[in-house]
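QA checklist item 7 of 12: single-chain prediction sanity check.
[x] sequence parsed
[x] length recorded as 478
[x] structure emitted
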Amino acid sequence: MSAPRDQDALLDHAIHGLSRLDPLASAQKAFVPWQRNALIGLAAVAIVLLALWPLPALTVAVAFCTFGYVVTITDRILIFSRGLRGDAILQISDEEALALPAEDLPAYTILVPAYKEPEVVALLLSAVGGLDYPREKLQVLLLLEADDAETIRAAREAHLSETVTIIEVPPAEPRTKPKACNYGLHFATGELVTIYDAEDHPEPLQLRRAVAAFRKLGDDVACIQAKLSFHNGTQNVLTGWFTAEYGLWFSFLLPGLMQSRSPIPLGGTSNHLKREALEQLGAWDAFNVTEDADLGVRLAIAGYRTAVLDSVTMEEANSDAINWIRQRSRWYKGYLQSWLVHMRRPLATWRSLGTVATIRMTIFLAGTPTIAALNSVFWLMTLSWLLGQPTQVGELFPSYVYYPAVVSLVFGNAATIYMGLISIRENRQSELLIPVLTVPLYWVMMSIASIKGCWQLFRNPSFWEKTAHGLPGAGTGP
């Protein structure tokens, strides 16, 4: 370990490195002044319009939201159709991966951030032990908060192999995963870097496949995202919903984004990165609670591409509703953080990404949590209409709003369920049929999580809500 003074310098860089390199690229402040003023201005205009012309103002708002719904579901179907193509996802066969001579493989660093997770440290042993990669070229950095005595003790008692090094991250705010990864990156020796959570089980050839993929693709590819799935998808209906959602996301939507050259919101783990490109961009944003999605956009803005690899890392799906809402609200908050960051310079983002990719980034990062939050409002209006057909609700939906809204409701929901059915068929997950057919109940939970995340964006934007792992009944993976 470095001397205390060096530790302070490394910690300071881990926290503020990106904000010093490019202050507008960091989510240290959720809103820059012009964004805050614009939001206040919009709120003031909305209040005035509601006070003076309440019904026309609400009708326009409903029409605007309906238009957003239609655009979002249309784009989602288009992306899904592109993800259905046979060549949408990158395939590296076992033979290609195993054909790489050990002496030609690059040094690889695996970052494993863990906080208050003593129960899953032992899983790290089996995961690392199962990777088919030369041990002399593999470096595993277990990143533990220095004041997390229980997890540190569990790690030391686990008799970790010589490839695993415990790095104690000095305690400091923000207590986020990206801050720990930035600190660990200072100790990395690998040409390629990836992140795994302590409970992850990547398939054994994943590192070799990633190396082969980088060599197969152009120099502008700086990231390879592997697929994520869950080993406890049948534990209960919640894990079923979560597993089906991940299957659709990583097997079809992200490959579809790759085909359309749009920014890819990276997953929290199993993204394999060229260390040189990562450091050039300032690594991760310590203040962003979805640092993965943010990095995916920053890679695209810098001119790099991300490819999606057909190699699966098994994780543990949240089986507890409260725990799931904590995690999902953080994701939604982070998506909004990331969109706000990249729209601080809207013209520069547009010039870098192009019109379609900029709109698509907005749909995914800002639209996903916003629509999830608004769902509650529209569901309540629909329920009140079905129960009593109040005149006020009918007046909000003149014909030019009503018919697109009906199409959005019926066709959009049906299309979403249909995409889920195609996904579980192609992924051979027939056991998830009931969760896919009952997915509207899952959307209710999404709406609650989104409202919570939007509220936290204003109250505590960089607060990282801890997600518990090793929950009862989840099992330990493959």
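[x] summary fact logged: The chain is about 55% helix and 10% strand.
[ ] second reviewer sign-off
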